[in-house]
Design a protein that fits this description.
GO cellular component, one term (chains A, B): cytoplasm
Enzyme class (chains A, B): transferase
Number of helices of chain A: 8
Subcellular location (chains A, B): Cytoplasm
Structural class of chain A: alpha/beta
Number of strands of chain A: 6
CATH class of the largest domain in chain A: Alpha Beta
Main location (chains A, B): cytoplasm
Distance between the termini of chain A: 58 Å
CATH superfamily of the largest domain in chain A: P-loop containing nucleotide triphosphate hydrolases
Oligomer: homodimer
Largest sheet of chain A: 6 strands, parallel
Number of domains of chain A: 2
Helix content of chain A: 40-55%
Mean pLDDT of chain A: 88
Keywords (chains A, B): ATP-binding, Cobalamin biosynthesis, Cytoplasm, Nucleotide-binding, Porphyrin biosynthesis, Transferase
CATH topology of the largest domain in chain A: Rossmann fold
Strand order of the largest sheet of chain A: 3-2-4-5-1-6
Strand content of chain A: 15-25%
Radius of gyration of chain A: 22 Å
C-alpha cells in the first residue's frame, strides 16, 4: 500500500471514529429528551404558514393513525370545489375514516361572506360531533385556520370545544393565519415556510402533489 | 329597531362588502398567477427544517397521488427500527404502492458509520429502480436528506439520477439538513419551522402523530 493510500485509510478511520463518537453523544441527548417526555395524551397539532405541506402533513398523519388501527374523522372547511386526491383516496375506507367536505372552494372563489359564515357554522357542527366521540382517535380540521382568520367562527368557542374533547383524541388543525389564541393552547405547532415553489418555474399545480 | 341595532346592521353590511371587495381583488391576483403557471411537469419537492411535518407531508402527497390512480414508490432511508403507522397502512395496497424500508433506525441509534453507508447505498439502488420506471407517478425518498447530510451518499450522483427520471414523475425528498445543491435543483422547497412541540409539555411521541 502506498503512503498516500495508507493516509487516506487513516483519514477514513478517523472520520468513522469521530462520526461514531458524535452519534454516541447525540444518542445520549435524544434518549434523555425521550425519557423526560413520558406522558401519553391527545395532542393538538397546528400546521400553519405560507409554505406547501400543511394539509398534506395532516393527511399523512391520518394515514399513520389508520395504520395503527385508529379511527379518523376529517372536516375540510374551505376546500371542496374540486375533488381532491385525498378525498378520493380516504373515501375508500368509510368504516375507518369519516370524510366531510363542507366548504365551497376558497373564500376568494365564493365572493360571498354571509354564505361562507353559514358554511363554516355547519362545518363546525360536524367537527363538534367528531370532537365528542371518544371512539375517534384523530380529528383533522383542514383549513380551519382560514375560517378563524376571517372570523367566520369565534376562536374562543372553537378553543372551548377543542379543550372539551376526549383526553386521548388528537386534533390536527391546518391553514394559513392561525390565530395566536389557538397557537397558545396547542401542543405542537409547525410553520411551513416557503423557500421556493414550482409556480415560479411556470409549473401548474400538479395532481397528487397539490391536490 | 333601535338606533344601536340599526348601526350594528350597517356595520355588518360594511364588513361583508369590504370582505367581498377584498376577495374579488385576491381572486384576480390568484387567477393571474394560475394563468401564468400552465406547464405540467414532474416536480421535485423537498421538505426540510427542524419542525414536525416533513415525512407526514410526503405521505399525505402519496395518499393524494393514490387517490388520482397514480402508482407510488417509497424508500425510507433512515427509519425502520420500529414499525410505523405509514408502513402498516400503505403496505395494504401492494399493487398501488411499493414500500421499501431500508434503514435501521436513526443514525445515532446504529452508532456505526460504515454500516450506515452500506445501507444508504442499497437504499439508493432501490430508489434508482423507482426513478427509472415511468409507470410510477410519485417517488417518496424519506429522510434522504439525512443520508446526504452525513455524506453516506454523494449529492452530485443523487442529483444526476434524479434529473434522469421520467419527465412526469414527481419526487418528494424529506429530512433535516437538505444540502444546498439539492435545494438549487428542486422546484418546491418548504422549511418546516418548529414553533412549539408537545415534548416540551412532557408528552411522549404519539402513535399516529409522530410514527
Amino acid at each position: 500500500m502506498s503512503e498516500e493510500q495508507n493516509s487516506a485509510g487513516k483519514d477514513a478511520d478517523g472520520l468513522n471514529e469521530r462520526h461514531n463518537a458524535r452519534m454516541a453523544r447525540k444518542k445520549e441527548v435524544v434518549d434523555k429528551k425521550i425519557d423526560a417526555a413520558k406522558r401519553n395524551a391527545g395532542v393538538l397539532v397546528i400546521t400553519c404558514g405560507n409554505g406547501k405541506g400543511k394539509s398534506s402533513s395532516a393527511f399523512g398523519m391520518a394515514a399513520r393513525a389508520l395504520g395503527h388501527g385508529m379511527k379518523v374523522g376529517v372536516v375540510q372547511f374551505i376546500k371542496g370545489a374540486i375533488a381532491t386526491g385525498e378525498e378520493n383516496f380516504f373515501r375508500r375506507f368509510p368504516d375507518e375514516i369519516s370524510f366531510h367536505v363542507m366548504g365551497e372552494g376558497y373564500t376568494w372563489e365564493t365572493q360571498n361572506r354571509e354564505r361562507d359564515v353559514e358554511k363554516a357554522e355547519i362545518a363546525w357542527q360536524r367537527a363538534k360531533e367528531l370532537l365528542s366521540d371518544p371512539a375517534i382517535g384523530m380529528v383533522v380540521l383542514d383549513e380551519l385556520n382560514i375560517a378563524l382568520k376571517y372570523k367566520y367562527l369565534d376562536v374562543q368557542r372553537v378553543i372551548a370545544d377543542l379543550q372539551a374533547r376526549p383526553t386521548m383524541q388528537h386534533v390536527i388543525v391546518t391553514g394559513r393565519g392561525a390565530p395566536p389564541e389557538l397557537i397558545a393552547v396547542a401542543n405542537t405547532v409547525t410553520e411551513m415556510q416557503p423557500v421556493k415553489h414550482a409556480f415560479a418555474d411556470g409549473i401548474a399545480a400538479q395532481q397528487g402533489v397539490e391536490w
